[in-house]
Amino acid sequence: MIDSLGQPQTVLVLGGTSDIALATVEAWASSRPQVVLAARPGDRREAAVLRLSGLGLEVEAVDFEATDTGSHPALIEQVASGRDIDVALVAFGVLEDEELAWRDHATAVRSAEVNYVGAVSVGVCLGDLIRRQGHGSIVALSSVAGEKVRRSNFAYGSAKAGMDGFFLGLGEALEPYGGHVLVVRPGFVHTTMTEGRDPAPLAVRAEEVATAIVDGVARRRRLVWVPRPMRPLMSVLRHVPHPVFRRLPI
Amino acid sequence: MTDAAARSRPVTAGRSRGERRRLTGFGLTSPSVGFTRAVSPRDVGGVLREAGSRGVIARGLGRSYGDAAQNAGGLVLLPGPSRITLSPESATARVSAGTSLHDLMRVVVPRGFFPLVTPGTRYVTVGGAIASDVHGKNHHHAGSFGNHVRQLTVVTADGQERTVTPEVDAGLFWATVGGMGLTGIVTEAVIALQRIETGSILSDTDRCDDLDELMAAMVAGDESAPYSVAWLDPMAKSRHLGRGVLSRGRHAPLSALPERLLESRWRVPEPPRVVAPSASLVPPRVISRTTVRAFNEAYFRSAPRRSRGEVTSLSSFFHPLDAVDGWNRLYGREGLVQYQLAVPDAAADVVRRVVERLSDHRAPSFLTVLKRFGPGNPGPLSFPMAGWTLAVDLPTSFARGGLLDELDEHVLSAGGRQYLTKDSRMRPDQLEGMYPRLAEFRRIRAAVDPSGIIQSDLSRRLGL
User: For labelling, which of A80, A177, B269, B425 has a CA lying 20 to 30 Å from the CA of A71?
Assistant: First the structure.
């Protein structure tokens, strides 16, 4: 059970090698949660397990493939058997080359399948679990890219826009069942996923996103922007007339 | 189905499971959703036998601060109606578990009786008072609630109704006293009462300028005072550290009543007159360092330096906060965390250390209570132990700062413990250190409930 201060006892990470998710688990480490990292087997997952078990946490790794949606219900059922899942982090995603992601059919479909379809798939399984548990939080890692879809990364942005909306709605739907969903909209985060890209203004580190997640879960917030000034900034951008907006270097 | 329909429709999962409801403790933290149902005592057995994997817990009036009386995804039995049968010759009352101490007092006070133990609120049920083994201002003389339970009826997980006493099936009796509702569903109890001549208290007040003076006064004077408790100002600093107001009292004999009170000799406790607004309507930071500091200053200054034999009503002496219905909502949506520790006499320095740390952190607690405990009782999970107890109310946002983890270490190393009824955030690995007889409790519980039908969010969180 999560305690009154928002410290979970069990955390499931879907996309268990995500830098933001691992930083978040580290921020919870003082309450010694049991951690399940669901990710593809391999070196990165091994490294993630070592990183967390090095903090004295009990860590378990399970195989997870975001696009294999048919396997998701059984996977979540198995992870939750014999224990409650207090917090689930939906932290997987792919960021392809943006130009390829709208010109190359396979790349575009893959982006939509991982970032949107996969997220909806686990969202439904987690929602079902939470309804039975009578409690539980889902943290969905969205992106400011999804709030206002731009020319520069619209394939990724549109999938994030879809998953963002799905999880906001799921939060409303789960409220009468004791569930809570936190949608997180970070700006540019320095992570493995964005390595080699030019950072956008207001870029943050994974630890800053983690702090916002820990706080958002404790306060049962619905939506957070990281860093916070992203919110007014995006709000202004939304109201910029289109002929101007399309000329902006963003 | 729309959200609105989901909220209003009573949920039936297969068979009637009750009404889906979001529950929290008095601290308004860690909400969870379970199915609530009012069940008559004779149907409790059947309900337990049919319980699903998320189990069953009984809930009283929701005065536990944490998650003791909620059961996420499972069944929560609501208190049944009051039933009170007073036996004046033996000074006992046979009461249903759902009877509140408020109802009990309204019946027995005019007939010259009073419970031997009352906590700081009379809005608790007898079932809850037993499950928490509550204590009052007279613990140093009378022990806790369980000390005065002569007999109780508990329906265990197998559906069997068992009548237990301190002599008959004493193991189950004492595991139920302070057992946080986890041994079974208490349906009825016989409790001893004390005789009183009036519904008034003669109270003595002393204002003490620092912690040493306060603790010395308590050590020196408690022997002669049946009721004794101190309020202290945890925000006071340096030479005023731990300043407080010591309040002691005894039941007023008829001869001590002033003439104006002779007509209202019993002064029966009344329901609350003021209702606090809903938590979501309370503006943020109503309870903050600034407001609490101002309150504490005013409260300390308004107390008399020394007064003796002041005649006061039972409710204003024992239950001053009951005058405001839902005062906990003033903490706003994030609620509050209460921290109550007990340490042995030899560890009085831990009390000082804790007060120092609260002061260092300018902890905004307006209800900080220090009291001496007498010896504990045989309940393996009963909280009181001979020594000191200190309780602090903190806004949840302040409690996140990590100070309480540090205080836990002091308490643990002194052989002390935390009160499970107040707890909402302790770490399960500390439980055994605080309750050395935990294994005995677990053994008794496993014998009457091998598959763990009776469970709560608290039992899941702490692995009780």
Answer: A177
Among B residues 97-156, those touching chain A with beta carbons less than 8 Å apart: none
Contact A219 B334 (CB under 8 A): yes
pLDDT at position B75: 97
Cα–Cα dist B374/B415, whole Å = 16
Give the side-chain half-sphere CA count within 13 A for B460: 32
Report how far residue A106's alpha carbon sits from residue B335's, in angstroms, rounded to the nearest whole number.
Answer: 50
DSSP-derived secondary structure for B146-202: GGGEEEEEEE-TTS-EEEE-SSTTHHHHHHHTTSTT-S-EEEEEEEEEEE-SSSEEE
Q: Which residues of chain A have pLDDT under 70?
A: none
**In B, which residues are within 8 Å of A6 by CB distance?**
400
Q: Which residues of B touch A132 (CB under 8 A)?
A: 54, 73
pLDDT per residue over B341-358, tens digit each?
999 999 999 999 999 999
Q: What is the mean pLDDT of residues B303-328?
A: 95
Chain B residues with CB-CB distance to A135 below 8 A? 30-33, 72-73, 457
pLDDT of residue B16: 54
pLDDT reading at B10 higher than 70: no
How, if at all, do strands B32-38 and B75-78 pair?
Answer: parallel
- Residue B9 sits at the chain A interface (C-beta within 8 Å): no
Residue B357 near residue B306 (C-beta atoms within 8 A)? no
Global confidence as pTM: 0.94
Q: How confident is the model at residue B43 (pLDDT cuts 50, 70, 90)?
A: very high
- Write phi, then psi, for B390 (nearest 5 degrees): -130, 130
Each as own residue / partner, the long-range contacts of residues B99-102 (CB below 8 Å, 24 or more positions apart, any chain) are B99/B125, B99/B126, B100/B60, B100/B61, B100/B124, B100/B125, B100/B126, B101/B125, B101/B126, B101/B129, B102/B269, B102/B271, B102/B322
ipTM above 0.90, yes or no: yes
Q: Does A172 touch chain B (CB under 8 A)?
A: yes
Contact with chain A for residue B334, Cβ under 8 A = yes
Residues A69-110 have pLDDT tens digits of: 999 999 999 999 989 999 999 999 999 999 999 999 999 999
- Rounded CA separation B68/B420 (Å): 8
| Alpha-carbon gap: B232 to the closest alpha carbon of chain A (Å) | 25
Catalytic residues of A: 156
Reduced to 3 states (helix: H, G, I; strand: E, B; else coil), residue B379 is coil
What mean pLDDT comes out for the span B23-46? 96
Please state, in angstroms and rounded to a whole number, the distance separating the CA atoms of residues B46 and A53. Answer: 46
Q: Is A222 on the interface with B (CB under 8 A)?
A: no
Taking CB atoms and an 8 Å limit, are A2 and B30 in contact across chains? yes
Do residue B427 and residue A32 have CB atoms under 8 angstroms apart?
yes
Chain pair A-B, CB pairs under 8 angstroms = 81
Which residue bears the tokens 């933290």?
A: B29
Beta strands in B351-412 (DSSP E): 369-373, 387-395
Distances (CA, A) of A214 to A87, B59, B336: 11, 31, 18
Rounded distance between C-alpha atoms, residue B192 and residue B96, angstroms: 14
Q: Is B461 in CB contact (< 8 Å) with chain A? A: yes
Chain A residues touching residue B72 (CB < 8 angstroms): 1, 84, 133-135, 178
Q: Which percentage of chain B shows pLDDT scores above 90?
A: 91
Beta strands (DSSP E) in B59-142 are: 75-78, 84-87, 92-96, 113-115
Q: Which of residues 104-163 of A touch B (CB under 8 A)?
A: 132-135
Q: Residue B9's pLDDT is what?
A: 40
Cα dihedral B307, B313, B317, B320 sign: negative
Kindly identify which residue of chain A lies nearest to residue B337, measuring between CA atoms.
A4
Q: How confident is the model at residue B4 (pLDDT cuts 50, 70, 90)?
A: very low
- Cβ contact A38:A90 at 8 Å: no
Cα gap A246→B7, rounded to integer Å = 44
Q: Give me the residue label for tokens 């939906």.
A: A90
